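Input/output pair, single chain:
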Amino acid sequence: MLSIMNWDVPYTVSRSLVLQIGPGGELLAGNSVSRMPQALAQDGLAVLLAFAGGRTPSEALARLQADWEIEEAGFSSVVDALVSQNSLTPVAGDDAALAGGGFASPAEHFVMMQDTVRVSAYRRAIFRHCRDKVVVEIGCGSGILSIFAAKAGARRVIAIEESRIADLAAAMFEANGVADRVELRRANSRDVSVDERADVIIHEVLGVDPFGENILRFIEDARERLLAPDGRLIPSAMDVYCVGFEVADRPYLDRARACAQLSELEGLHGIDFSAFRQFVSETQPDPFPRPLGDLGLTQFTPRILTAETHLYRVDFASGSSETIEPRNDLRLRVLHPGTLGGVVVYFRAHLDDDTFLSTSPYALRTSWGWNARALSKIVAVEPGQEIPLVSELRTTAGAQSLHIDLA
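Output:
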């Protein structure tokens, strides 16, 4: 197999790398929402440490061989695996191994391009604030927002993309006549350095779950390293809300029904399913969530029962993961009688003082869709009631997500 590393190129540990213990006790390494975390062998951790601070493979191997008996072939194999996952990245911060999953798909970006609400809102804000500015875009995707910045008269645009969709962005810059003003950096933004700090940072690291693309980590890093002291972020802030909606209280395939059906199958197949029943009963999260029904293609169709509850306010000029603390003081204020069985989580992203984007169920459906979640149980509610909620930002295999349920 042909080695992909270069013995003469200095590599370092990617600043976006997250190590976490997996459910089976394995050590997982992940650094991108477009890559699945990979199990890291014990020798892989030692190799990562050998590259800390930036070294060529030759230097790292010599460092390891000073303490252990290590063959060049085995070392090369481990380094190739780490480089291919961008766990080890070139010190130069460019031409990293690009992710091939997730946002590398042009289908993902086609859906975004069809979202005229999203694209038009960003265009308005970009044309208001980017003339004669140095602009950095984090996660440029197909490149459309960087193209807007160039056409708005930006003095310089640096577009950063960590997945293979960067090839499309490069072609888009050429086709739209802005390649002379847009510099494409093929890397994770946390591994990129700039020789001139940005007056404006454009980002659209907003997930269906508002925190699902690790927006806090990326923006905190970009603000500290890439943005000028008085620079602007687009969006500059985000509010996160939820509302409760009605879910029909009717039988469905839940844990109890699944276990009952397994008992019936024992007689049919002549197999003891007790271990299967126990596994179903103990698996978390619930493998049989309550179906939420049709949510609507353009407008949210389930009946909304509560007022909106404000969960978090994130000011990207100062916010970090540490500002999103678990909350047990939340209440859903009931406006209409019904059977409360789900919540919709949504954001309002403030592109500037005049323009915001919303995934609210009261607005037209955007490319983000509806972030509807089943609650752990259905509750019959009447107007005036206040239903307690708990909310927590969790990290699983390096990816953040917001968890909300009844208290």
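The chain has four domains: 11-90, 102-204, 239-252+290-406, 253-287. The chain has a mean pLDDT of 91.
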